[in-house]
């Protein structure tokens, strides 16, 4: 009898390097929300549609023959709009022909970049808690992650120890993966921190890949405005800057993202990307080109609405007795559960729907060192005010009686 080696039916067929990755925590907690009828502040997707001109442009594109494969690097109108947008907001110049690549969301851009840049055994430095796809992308490449921990300082801001960052970089380090504004903490990396990261990249001659999907969601009371790492001296030529339409235009299901950087980095990423999805979102690409060119007032309005929603959620959490780490940007606020008697975020989040009908996400699953995040949970505020108000009423039930 012929048997195929290593494939008996009773073992998990999944390759070993992917076995540590179960169903994402977001899917698990969203399913819990549906099962229990809880208000879902777990997964970070908006509950309203994006700008009408964008939706109209997509509908028109669908009806006017934009339904076949777009060009591999993305349609020229979108690449040009991506370049123009980065010039307008950050003063960064990219050639839409050779320095911009359209991808299936930021996720694909990051995964393709890691697969393109890392040999098996190479190392990727990232900050934890990290976005969950990073660890999986690094594992797919057979690379090794070297996390540097962000910890709340006395002022309720997350910070890292520069010595820990230096210690994480070694002879096998290929790149630093930086997410700012940062999910899940809402941290915006300061210019001083970016300067440290830039110096280390240059000293060790390593690449930077930046995930800036929240670039337009930094609040007016943040300590620092958002500063793309690529704008620091010497960094443009070693940084692949990644962003996407999902968060900026409330269309997370469209999965239109992009990478910009020096032609060699973009080209390397494109050569992997072409064999992952090839292309995506043909009729959506022209619509995102329209959205990117919206006037500054759109971007200001988005930020203002999100800041009002942040304030509403933070007030509700504080009244319920959480110690909230007020975010400077993004869709998310993290809160410490110890004042409410919590000792473990996973247990806390699993019992929260039953206790008060709200779903949150434990952040310890985004650390290699779970102790650093054991007491922290994340709430999303990219929800309509009435949804946040209902969540606030429910959370008030947690407040210990005085
Ligand atoms: C939402 C999110 C992404 C995913 O972006 P897509 O464009 O949907 O792939 C990537 N990074 C961070 C930090 C995010 O929050």
Can you walk through the features of this model?
The protein is α/β, with parallel strands linked by helices and 402 residues long. The chain folds into two domains: 16-43 and 297-398, Aspartate Aminotransferase, domain 1 (Alpha-Beta Complex), CATH 3.90.1150; 52-292, Aspartate Aminotransferase, domain 2. 39% of the residues lie in helices and 15% in strands. It has helices at 25-36, 52-63, 76-90, 105-117, 132-140, 162-168, 191-204, 245-248, 263-276, 284-292, 296-320, 345-356, 385-395; strands at residues 39-40, 100-103, 123-128, 144-149, 151-152, 158-159, 173-179, 207-211, 239-244, 257-260, 323-325, 332-336, 358-359, 361-362, 376-380. A seven-stranded mixed beta sheet has the order 2-10-9-8-7-3-4, with helices on both faces. A four-stranded antiparallel beta sheet has the order 11-12-15-14. Helix 1 (25-36) packs parallel to helix 12 (345-356) and helix 4 (105-117) crosses helix 9 (263-276). The longest helix is centred in the C-terminal third of the chain and has 25 residues, at 296-320. The radius of gyration is 21 Å and the shape is globular. Bound molecules: pyridoxal-5'-phosphate. Residues 105-107, 131, 179, 183, 211, 213, 244, 246-247, 252, 255, 257 line the site of pyridoxal-5'-phosphate (PLP). Pyridoxal-5'-phosphate (PLP) binds at residues 105-107, 131, 179, 183, 211, 213, 244, 246-247, 252, 255, 257.
């Amino acid at each position: 009898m012929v048997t195929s080696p290593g494939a008996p039916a009773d073992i998990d067929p999944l390759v070993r390097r992917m076995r540590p990755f179960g169903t994402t925590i977001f899917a698990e907690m969203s399913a819990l929300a549906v099962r229990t009828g809880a208000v879902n502040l777990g997964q970070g997707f908006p509950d309203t549609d994006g700008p009408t001109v964008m939706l109209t442009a997509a509908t028109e594109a669908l009806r006017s023959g934009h339904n076949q494969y777009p060009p591999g690097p993305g349609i020229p109108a979108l690449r040009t709009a991506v370049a123009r947008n980065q010039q307008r907001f950050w003063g960064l110049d990219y050639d839409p022909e050779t320095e911009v690549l359209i991808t299936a969301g930021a996720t694909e851009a990051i995964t393709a970049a890691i697969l393109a840049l890392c040999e098996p055994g190479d190392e990727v430095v990232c900050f934890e808690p990290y976005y969950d796809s990073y660890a999986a992308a690094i594992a797919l490449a057979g690379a090794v992650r070297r996390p540097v921990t962000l910890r709340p300082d006395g002022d309720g801001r997350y910070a890292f120890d520069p010595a820990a960052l230096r210690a994480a970089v070694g002879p096998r380090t290929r790149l630093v993966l930086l997410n700012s504004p940062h999910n899940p903490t809402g941290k915006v990396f300061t210019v001083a921190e970016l300067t440290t990261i830039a110096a280390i990249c240059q000293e060790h001659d390593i690449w930077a890949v930046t995930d800036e999907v929240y670039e337009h969601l930094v609040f007016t009371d943040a300590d620092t405005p958002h500063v793309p790492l690529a704008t620091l001296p010497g960094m443009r030529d070693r940084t692949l800057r990644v962003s996407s339409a999902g968060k900026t235009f409330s269309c997370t299901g469209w999965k239109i993202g992009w990478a910009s950087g020096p032609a060699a980095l973009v080209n390397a990423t494109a050569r992997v990307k072409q064999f992952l999805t090839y292309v995506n979102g043909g009729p959506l690409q022209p619509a995102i080109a329209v959205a990117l060119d919206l006037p500054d007032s759109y971007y200001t309005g988005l930020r203002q609405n999100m800041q009002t929603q942040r304030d509403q959620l933070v007030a509700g959490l504080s009244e319920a007795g959480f110690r909230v780490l007020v975010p400077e940007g993004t869709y998310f606020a993290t809160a410490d559960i110890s004042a409410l008697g919590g000792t473990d975020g996973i247990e806390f989040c699993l019992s929260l729907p039953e206790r008060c009908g709200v779903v949150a996400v434990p952040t310890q699953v985004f650390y290699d060192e779970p102790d650093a995040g054991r007491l922290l949970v994340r709430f999303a505020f990219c929800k309509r005010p009435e949804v946040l108000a209902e969540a606030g009423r429910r959370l008030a039930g947690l407040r210990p009686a005085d």
